[in-house]
Amino acid sequence: MKRPRITIAHIILVVLVVAIGLAAIRSGSAAWAGAMFSITFFMMICSFLGAALGRGMRRIYWSGFATLGWSYLLLIYVPWLDGKVGRFLLAPNLFPYLEEILHSDAQGGGGLQSLALGILGATATGGGFDGGIGGWSGVQNLSDFGRIGLAMEALLWAFLGGWVACYFASGRDEGSNPHGAGPAGPPESGGESHADETASRGSGPSA
Prior knowledge:
The chain has 9 helices and no strands. The chain is mainly alpha-helical and 207 residues long. The chain has one domain.
């Protein structure tokens, strides 16, 4: 198989998802949170269909998409995994913090300067994202802004999983078919025909 290539359709899809995500972050409303979750679960269900009904590289892509995408959702929504692993992922820590910063900027008009000062202050005090503003308090207590972040990170994991699966599959096929091995059939047939022609010449009438 050939190496996976980035096509115009892939770029358009990524730009569309990023645009919807940025619009959802800007709004932070329940409607946008629902839209992002609907898109995420729609893509996750479609990944099962792609893995079951696809062929070749498409099937490999959807298999990787489903594996990493659903793995992320399990880490976030399964109670035991949520407390052990999910709470330390990027979105559960970053987006509640950003929500507080963005809301304070909207009220005080601080802009990017307030955002930078807030991040530097949390880092200097050793609080980080989880110990400072916001923090992860479980899926049940998630705000709309936090749900948007989880949906976006789940899609990121899924897309990366599809590309990684295609990359490993193409490398496996290249390793099993080395370029140095040449065809074995034609030289043998050519050698036999040359030997038959020599024998026929030697068995002709002598002068």
